[in-house]
Write a structure and sequence with these properties.
By secondary structure, the chain is of the alpha/beta class. The protein has 2 domains: about 1-280, Rossmann fold (3-Layer(aba) Sandwich); about 290-315, no CATH class. It has helices at about 35-60, 75-85, 110-120, 145-155, 195-200, 220, 235-245, 275-280, 290-305, 310-315, and strands spanning about 1-5, 20, 30-35, 60-65, 95, 100, 130, 160-165, 185-190, 210-215, 225-230, 265. The strands form 3 sheets. The protein has a 7-stranded parallel β-sheet. It has a 3-stranded antiparallel β-sheet with strand order 6-10-9. It has a two-stranded antiparallel sheet with strand order 1-2. The chain is globular, with a radius of gyration of 22 Å.
C-alpha cells in the first residue's frame, strides 16, 4: 500500500513520495520506508529546510548534527541545489559533526573534515567559524580536553535541533560501537572489527583503517531535539531490524533511539527488508495472498519449520502445521 506525500519546499523539485505502509506493531521507533532513493533524499532535505527556517526565525540560529559516509551524500547534494535556488540560507546555521577517525590529518583524503567541505560546506554560505568537526590531529594527551570542549560548544550553541545519523553494520551511531553506554559523551573509542572491515575499501585495505576514532557519545546524540537515522541497501537490513524491532541493548547502540521522543528511521525498501511489515506482513494483519506473496510465505514457513528446535516441538505436538492459507 502506498500513501502519496506531495509537500514541496521552495526550490524543490516536484515529487510524489510514496511511503510503504502496513501495520507497525513490532516497530519500537517511528519508521518511514521510501521506495525511491531520490524521494528519500528530497524528503530529508525538506525536513532540514523546514527546521533551518523555523529555528533561525525563532532564535536566530539553527544547530545541525551532521553525519558522513555514503548515506547522506544525496541529501547534501539536494541541500546545495536548494541553496543555489534560493530555497535555504545557511548563514545562521551552526554544525557539529558526529565523529572523526583518529589519528587523522585534517587535509587527508580520508578525513571527515575534508569530506564535509568538499560535499557541503564549500557550496553553501555557512560561516567557517560555525563549523565544528572533531580534530583527528589533536595530540593524544589533549584529547580528553578536546572532547570536553566539544560538549561545551554544543551546550553553548543551545543544543542540536536536528541530528542526522547513519547506522553501521555493528549497529553503531556515530562511532558508538557495541558496548557503548547510554550515558556516554564525546570521547576516543576503539573501532569494532566489523567497522574497520567495512571501511577497508576506502582506505585501500583494512590494515590501513585507523583503529580509533573520536565520536559524540550516545547521550550527546540523544539530547538532540529531533533525530533522523537513515539507512539504505540490503547490507543494512539485518541491523536495522535489530535496532527498530529488537530490545534496547548496548550491543546495538542504534536501539537507544527507541527511547527518544522525536526520532525517526528513514529507509529504502532494501534496508527495510527484514522488518516484519515487509518480510512477513501476514504476522501482523490479513493480507492479499497473491502468488508471489504465497511463495514468499511458503519459503519462510519452510525455514521456520526446518530448524532442529522447531522440528522437535512439532514432533511432540499434534497441532497442524500453519500454511499460507491459514496464517
Amino acid at each position: 500500500m502506498t500513501r502519496p506525500d506531495t509537500r514541496q519546499e521552495e526550490g524543490a523539485q516536484p515529487a510524489r513520495r510514496p511511503v510503504l505502509d502496513g501495520r507497525r506493531d513490532r516497530e519500537r521507533v517511528r519508521t518511514v520506508i521510501i521506495p525511491d532513493h531520490g524521494d528519500l533524499e528530497r524528503l530529508l532535505a525538506d525536513r532540514l529546510v523546514e527546521v533551518i527556517a523555523r529555528e533561525t526565525a525563532r532564535r536566530g540560529r539553527c544547530v545541525l548534527g551532521l553525519a558522513t559516509g555514503s548515506t547522506p551524500l544525496g541529501i547534501y547534494r539536494e541541500l546545495i541545489r536548494r541553496f543555489q535556488a534560493g530555497g535555504v540560507d545557511f548563514s545562521q546555521v551552526v554544525t557539529f559533526n558526529l565523529d572523526e577517525y583518529y589519528p587523522m590529518r585534517p587535509d587527508s583524503p580520508h578525513s571527515y573534515r575534508r569530506y564535509m567541505w568538499e560535499n557541503l560546506f564549500d557550496h553553501v554560505n555557512v560561516k567557517p567559524e560555525n563549523v565544528h568537526i572533531p580534530d583527528g590531529g589533536t595530540p593524544r594527551e589533549r584529547l580528553a580536553e578536546q572532547c570536553a570542549a566539544y560538549e561545551r560548544a554544543i551546550a553553548e550553541a543551545g543544543g542540536i535541533d536536528f541530528q542526522i545519523l547513519g547506522i553501521g553494520k555493528s549497529g553503531h551511531i556515530g562511532f558508538n560501537e557495541p558496548g557503548s553506554s547510554p550515558g556516554s559523551r564525546t570521547r576516543l573509542v576503539t573501532l569494532d572489527t566489523i567497522t574497520r572491515k567495512d571501511a577497508g575499501a576506502d582506505f585501500f585495505g583494512e590494515d590501513n583503517v585507523p583503529r580509533e576514532a573520536i565520536t559524540m557519545g550516545v547521550a550527546t546524540i540523544l539530547e538532540a531535539r529531533e533525530i533522523a537515522l537513515i539507512a539504505t541497501g540490503e547490507h543494512k537490513a539485518a541491523i536495522v531490524q535489530h535496532a527498530v524491532e529488537g530490545e534496547v541493548s548496548p550491543d546495538v547502540a542504534a536501539s537507544f533511539l527507541q527511547g527518544h521522543p522525536n526520532a525517526t528511521v528513514y529507509l529504502d525498501v532494501a534496508a527495510a527488508a527484514e522488518l516484519t511489515r515487509v518480510k512477513t506482513p501476514w504476522l501482523l494483519e490479513p493480507v492479499e495472498w497473491t502468488p508471489a506473496l504465497t511463495e514468499v510465505a511458503v519459503v519462510w514457513l519452510a525455514e521456520q519449520s526446518g530448524s532442529p528446535s522447531r522440528r522437535a516441538r512439532r514432533s511432540s505436538s499434534s497441532a497442524p502445521v500453519t500454511t499460507p492459507s491459514t496464517i
